[in-house]
Specification:
It is a single chain. With 150 residues, this protein is mostly helical. The protein folds into 2 domains: 5-68, no CATH class; 89-149, no CATH class. It is 54% helix and 9% strand. It is built from 9 helices and 2 strands, in the order αααβαβααααα. The protein has a two-stranded parallel ribbon with strand order 1-2. Helix 4 (42-57) links the parallel strand 1 and strand 2 (62-68). The longest helix has 16 residues, at 42-57.
Amino acid sequence: MLLDTWFSSGLLPLTARGWPNLDQDFKRFYPLSVMETGYDILGLWVSRMASLSKHLTGEGPVRRVLLHGMVCDGHGKKMTKSLGNVIDPIHVVNGVTMDQLHQVSSEHHERGLLTQEQLDRAHQGQRLLSPMVFRHAVPMLFACHCLKTK
């Protein structure tokens, strides 16, 4: 039996405690105390999990949800591998030239991960960085920019 990822993930708080057997162990540990997650999946996963749990048990899956911040790029976009806007830790440790940064972005574009517009925006943002800034301060720069834009 194959279940949709979001649906089956929504079952986790229930099945981890032995559902559908509502024994003493289930009653002792359900609902869970806390769940830590990002706001970006509230509608995709957390709300489905809450609805499913409420429907099947009469209670929500957790007592408290803690939302963590998101690391964003210089344009305020969430950093993801699929967009190709993540910071490679090796670049942070060893430094990187502007040509190398452009090459990585161009490869993402060639593989279909970035549109031409996203590639142009990436190159524009990269030109704003000096190699020394990128080597030492980019993670903090992006995190601070993201916090200021929210």
